[in-house]
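hi! just following up on the protien thing from before. the input was this:
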Amino acid sequence: MKIKTQLCPGILIIAVLVAGTPILGDDLDTRVATVLKATPLIDGHNDLPWQYLRRVNNHLSQLDLASDLTQIDNPTDTDLPRLRRGMVGGIFWSVYVPIEAYGGNPSAVQAVINQIDFVKRLVNHYDSDLELALDASSIRRIHASGKIASLIGMEGGHSINNSLASLRQLYDLGARYMTLTHSKGLLWADSATDTQRHGGLTQFGELVVLEMNRLGMMVDLSHVSVETMRDALRVSRSPVIFSHSSAYGVTQHARNVPDDVLALVGKKRGVVMVNYLTSYVSESMRLHRVALERHEEMLNQDHDPDRVAELMSQWSARHPAPEVTLFDVADHIDHIKAVAGIEAIGLGADFDGMPPGPVGLEDVSTYPALLKELLIRGYSDQDIAKIAGENLLRVMNDAEAVAARLQTLEPPRDDLLHEIDFEHDFEHNAAQAQ
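and the predicted 3d structure came back as:
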């Protein structure tokens, strides 16, 4: 079999030559549609709730998800018509709230409750298309009914403000995973993109993971440091997820997952949901971004903001960004398959939480294009089903089964951060006082 692929700006052209006879996209379309009718395609991370907060202060009436939002100024990546074209069966709406500094912010708890409330209002408002899902069986039921299963994922452990009680109440409100950190470290966990203070999880951080296991809340390791990844994989009694990360072996970004961790994820039946952010999936784009940021930092030392903007525009004209395509994303899937196995792969695009996506994967209508590329690369229909949603559903089922067992054996934990991690708490308070 010979394979020919060509990616033109905005257009994917695919031809498969079998015994000299071209088979164009129709057969691939049929195969993908057949898989996605039986298996819900589940995206592990979509930041549309943040767009509603940032753009219209969570006023549903001011941004109509049922309309074509490509026609508005500064289009979103997500709307219902495009979700339907993308054959999406389930989606984790991220209830992200910012973290500005190490240690978190007490107001994050109320902020994340507000975002959970928004997701529920969104789902209720568009109830002909969306339905809230709280477990794996409800995802399958909702998908079979023709609706899109809507789940809630918390992005960042600062959302619990160092409180296991808050963690439990947020689970009761519907959160089904929590990313242990975001861009800044916490008093109990190190982030991938901040100073490493603990060498991974503190003792209290390990208790957070254990309590998540007891609840049935999936442990999400996107954004955490490599040592935090390893600690969580060692401690967790349930499989873990990476809701929106890619492979460090392909693109050496701190947000990606190194091979030794990928191997552990595969061994422990977890899943890495591949991210589409261009500097995470293309090494040439990552290096371009590093050069751009260094140049801007240098200019900021000597020039006012207007002059910096002018000089950066000139630099960008001389150093155009490399093109990133869906083939780059498929390369990450190939790599994860080789290291961790086919059952360790999912999709977590990060739409509406990133700059424009790769060519061919511009918005939520484009998932089938990636799946067709995988078919061309020799993945089976069963493989496509696993990547689309079966792997994530298996992890959810496992987390639910572990929780059901643990809840018969263990009461809710009442440990307090300052009792468990006194030394770290003391150091943080001393630093804040200076």
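The two ends are 68 Å apart (CA to CA).
Confidence is low (pLDDT under 50) at residues 1-6, 8-23, 425-434.
cheers
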